[in-house]
Amino acid sequence: MRRTPCFKAILFLSILCAVKFSSGQSTAGDQYANRIILLPFQNLSGVSDAKLVIMSAIREKLRKAGFNPVSDSLLSPALRKYRLRDTSQLSAAESDSLSKNLDTPWIVLGSIDYYSDQENFEVGLSFRLFDSRTHRIVWADSRCSSRDDHIKILGIRAVESLTQLIDLEIESAITSLVQRRQAMGGFTDYQNTQNSNQPVVFLIPFGNVTESAVTSKIFDHYLLSALVRHGYNVIEPGIVNHELYLKQLLLKGEIDQQTLIELGQKFSAGYCMTGLLSRYGSVYNPDMGNIPDLEVETRMLVAVSARICWAQKIERSGSDGRKIFQIGQIHTYGALFNATLDEMLDSLPTKTIAEKSETTGN
Fold it and tell me: In this predicted model, what pLDDT tens digit does every residue of 110-130 receive, in sequence order?
């Protein structure tokens, strides 16, 4: 059968469209799964140069791990368009607008909590991945260490420079992000990011009676990461804070019953957590140097009743786990936050049927 030029042209176009559609579907899916908005981190370290160093390293490590951060040439105009000056948190409307503009629901927020280039150099970072479709945190990680935290037996140092320490902490965080993505079977499926068996909790900023004004902010970041690590669905704090702003409320460490119930209903959350950071400082020991020391009070409330279902007060020092030489000693506040919060949250009672009924109102 003789094929006319017209037939050949139609056949060629059909094959071309089919190939393009097929590859386009795959590419779009991959891009949707890996395309993320990396917002500038909040710098709480007090070191102005830290932000440029840290953000550049995070972007590079994300690319190496297979993610596709939105370029600055696209991100900067979007931030200006929606007047987003504070990128440490997002309201629901801000996250929706940003996601639509940049074509991905995945937003990475975070903070530089600690940064020091002194002899015992140190870095502390907090990350969280936020799904703009659900307004919940999909993944979070807070980590902090210093040179002395990486000293092995006989005083051998495993980390020799601040740059090496920064790379180590960022790589560890992004490795946990990759593991989270793999555990969920990827981030392309909306349903994959939801787990109805996980209790939903929102945070009210902790009260702070210590001498450090930013300490409670840092502690809130570490608490958020610990809750996610322990299996809770956490509402993005920026969305909670925006609702409090609309109500003309500035809450620290406490919440009234009416507001608690209203926020619980709005976020479909069963629980609220808040508390007080009552001590934060260091104790000098001639043999161990300056040891971080803290005291914190935490409580969890049932949203529909304002009943306190769990509370704990705990005091911890970086020397509590020391065994021999400096093994087991904690040298940084961030690492002490993590150890303390894991210990506290391990004591949370398992959610009972009675509690489940109470949180849903059934």
Answer: 999 999 999 889 999 999 999
Whether the domain at 36-194 and the domain at 197-362 fall into the same CATH topology: yes
Going by C-beta distance under 8 Å and a sequence separation of 6 or more, which residues neighbour residue 239? 90, 91, 92, 95, 135, 267
Nearest to 139 by CA among 190, 99, 193: 193
> Residue 34: what pLDDT?
85
Contact 21, 89 (CB under 8 A): no
Residues ≥6 apart with Cβ < 8 Å to 42: 86, 87, 88, 110, 111, 112
Alpha carbons 88 and 84: distance in angstroms, whole number: 10
Residues near 249 by beta carbon (within 8 Å), at least 6 away in sequence: 259
Closest C-alpha among 301, 214, 213, 195 to residue 255: 301
CATH superfamily for 197-362 is ABC-type transport auxiliary lipoprotein component (3.40.50.10610)
DSSP secondary structure, 189-251, as one string: -GGGG--TTSPEEEEPPPEE-SS-TTHHHHHHHHHHHHHHHTT-EEB-HHHHHHHHHHTT---
- Quote the pLDDT of residue 347: 85
Q: Which residues are CB-contacts of 324 (< 8 A; sequence separation ≥ 6)?
A: none
pLDDT tens, position by position, 144-192: 999 888 875 444 567 889 999 999 999 999 999 999 888 877 766 544 4
Burial of 51 (0-12, 13-18, 19+ CB in 10 A): middle
- CATH no. of 36-194: 3.40.50.10610
pLDDT value of position 361: 47
Strand (E) or helix (H) holding 346: helix 333-346
DSSP class of 28: H
**Which segments of the chain have a pLDDT < 70?**
1-33, 152-157, 187-196, 284, 286-289, 320-328, 350-362
Q: Hey, where are the domains in the chain? A: 36-194, 197-362
